[in-house]
């Protein structure tokens, strides 16, 4: 559960960014450390059901992205490197070439500019589900969390169509990835002690039943 001090959360994100990693194979389009469907069902039963609240109003600037790791690499660059099957990068850590397959739709690209880094649980969704009471440092931890399955490189226009929708309103169009997406969603909400609304919980339960 989400209980670390704010500085600890930021430190965890920063240390993870600095850790060594290898690009994943194209058929491993999955997020890191995703829980099982059984665990997701257990976590879902423990989440607090509450209506969303946007008071005070959401402001993306309260979720600082992307934080810098050691050297010049930031979170976006880390995810682009992690999610590539092949990648070459310049001295500033940004990819100069590579191959990516968007997990949400299976679309391949060799242009990093075609990709957005999606927050599985959108930042506004986190805000209306409890993050509005956090410190900015805690929100930065969520926005840059590479340890849990919260960030993934996907087709930019698809990410933009998702926006801040929850699972009652949007899941990836690639059906084979829906179960992974839903399990990751529950995992992030559970870790950060975020709430779910009733329609969201019903939709999650439906998808998990098919996992």
Automatic annotation (TrEMBL):
<dbReference type="Pfam" id="PF07510">
    <property type="entry name" value="GmrSD_C"/>
</dbReference>
<feature type="domain" description="GmrSD restriction endonucleases C-terminal">
    <location>
        <begin position="99"/>
        <end position="206"/>
    </location>
</feature>
<keyword id="KW-0732">Signal</keyword>
<dbReference type="InterPro" id="IPR011089">
    <property type="entry name" value="GmrSD_C"/>
</dbReference>
<protein>
    <recommendedName>
        <fullName>GmrSD restriction endonucleases C-terminal domain-containing protein</fullName>
    </recommendedName>
</protein>
<feature type="signal peptide">
    <location>
        <begin position="1"/>
        <end position="18"/>
    </location>
</feature>
């Amino acid at each position: 559960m989400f209980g670390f001090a704010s500085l600890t959360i930021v430190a965890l994100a920063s240390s993870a960014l600095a850790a060594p990693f290898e690009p994943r194979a194209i058929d491993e389009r999955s997020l890191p450390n995703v829980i099982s469907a059984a665990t997701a069902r257990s976590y879902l039963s423990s989440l607090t059901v509450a209506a969303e609240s946007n008071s005070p109003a959401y402001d993306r600037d309260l979720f600082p992205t992307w934080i810098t790791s050691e050297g010049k690499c930031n979170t976006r660059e880390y995810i682009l490197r992690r999610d590539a099957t092949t990648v070459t990068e310049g001295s500033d850590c940004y990819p100069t070439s590579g191959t990516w397959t968007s997990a949400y739709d299976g679309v391949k690209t060799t242009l990093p500019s075609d990709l957005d880094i999606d927050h599985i649980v959108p930042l506004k969704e986190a805000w209306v589900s409890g993050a509005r009471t956090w410190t900015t440092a805690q929100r930065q931890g969520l926005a840059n969390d590479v340890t849990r399955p919260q960030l993934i490189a996907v087709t930019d226009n698809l990410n933009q169509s998702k926006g801040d929708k929850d699972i009652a309103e949007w899941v990836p169009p690639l059906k084979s990835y829906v179960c992974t997406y839903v399990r990751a969603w529950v995992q992030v909400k559970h870790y950060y002690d975020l709430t779910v609304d009733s329609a969201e919980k019903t939709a999650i339960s439906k998808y998990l039943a098919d996992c």
